[in-house]
Amino acid sequence: MTDHTPTRIRTADLTGNRRRSFDLVPDAAARDALAKDLGLIALPMLRFTGELRPSGRSDVVLSARLTGQADQACIVTLAPVPCTLDEQVTRSYISDWSEPEGEEIEMPEDDSREPMPEIVDLTEVMAEALALALPDYPRAPGAELGQAVFAAPGTAPLGDDDIKPFAGLAALKDKLKN
Asked: pLDDT tens across 61-76, in order?
């Protein structure tokens, strides 16, 4: 990291109105390592800015903004696809967290809630937020998958139109008209 912001903050230190602001700007080596871990072509810019603050009597909330630029490989052509990131990141660390029990559990609407750790590792939160913010299937402009057609020698290949569920019925209907 190029700044002097501590990246590991003890949650026990966040009592009363004590807030901890942070501004993480990873240096080139840290960005390269993160890009490699996430399978990115490049990560030319990344910044994670925000604060940890107490919430209620014993919980802690992380509110931050993740900004950056990344280059991912196109899923079709493998050409670089640039991406600009600007995401709000919120994590609510709950001190009296209890794991849901039972075979079938209902997922809460607020998925930012997590059990309270002893130490919040801001580098890990930043990396997780980055991974979640990246497009799942980056595609270069104009890149299309096309259609794969396979057939045994001497037979006509099946196309997408031939496989549609009602294509056979349409052909049967036309045959019955004649």
From this structure: 899 999 999 999 988 8
